[in-house]
Design a protein that fits this description.
Number of helices: 2
CATH topology of the largest domain: Chitinase A, domain 3
Strand content: 35-45%
Largest sheet: 5 strands, antiparallel
CATH class of the largest domain: Alpha Beta
Number of domains: 2
Number of strands: 9
């Protein structure tokens, strides 16, 4: 079966940066399972998997724009340290939930001084091209219930 919209797909992957450094991998774990066509993986990878079948191995180069997006400077802000009441030790790399008019978002601390904490609301991989090595392990049609819920049920997916 070929991967089409509303296929349930399981694949192993290794994600590297432009220098070949491994960012993430499913090696040693269960394959990643997703429903094709509903935006559960980055667009560039999802587009590359369309029409592929079980057993296929492919290398996919995903531009930043088709991955986690470009890095936006306006999403980096300096916040008064007192906004972090109750947190004594704030260090770069820590993540916090921030409330915005559009809802909650995760921000990463990038710098700290006596009075200010610099936070970045960009995804940590924003602005980076991504390189995936993929092996497709299984493809099946999604059930009507999975389609109506917009996600996979059962092994590798969501359990109700």
């Amino acid at each position: 079966m070929q991967i089409i919209e509303n296929s349930v797909v399981s694949f192993h992957y290794t994600l590297t940066d432009k220098d070949g450094k491994v960012i993430d991998s499913s090696n040693g774990n269960a394959p990643l399972t997703y429903m094709h066509g509903v935006g559960q993986i980055v667009p560039g990878l999802e587009n590359a998997l369309l029409g592929k079948t079980v057993g296929e191995k492919l290398d996919v180069n995903v531009s930043a724009a088709e991955g986690y997006g470009e890095h936006h400077d306006f999403m980096v802000q300096q916040v008064p340290r007192e906004a972090f009441q109750g947190v004594d030790d704030i260090e770069p790399g820590m993540q916090f939930q921030a409330q915005t008019p559009q809802g909650g978002m995760t921000v990463t601390v990038t710098a700290v001084d006596e009075t200010t904490v610099t936070v970045d609301g960009n995804h940590p991989l924003a602005g980076q091209d991504l390189f995936f090595a993929v092996e497709i392990m299984s493809v099946r049609a999604a059930t009507e219930e999975e389609i109506s819920h917009g996600h996979v049920h059962g092994e590798g997916g969501h359990q109700h």
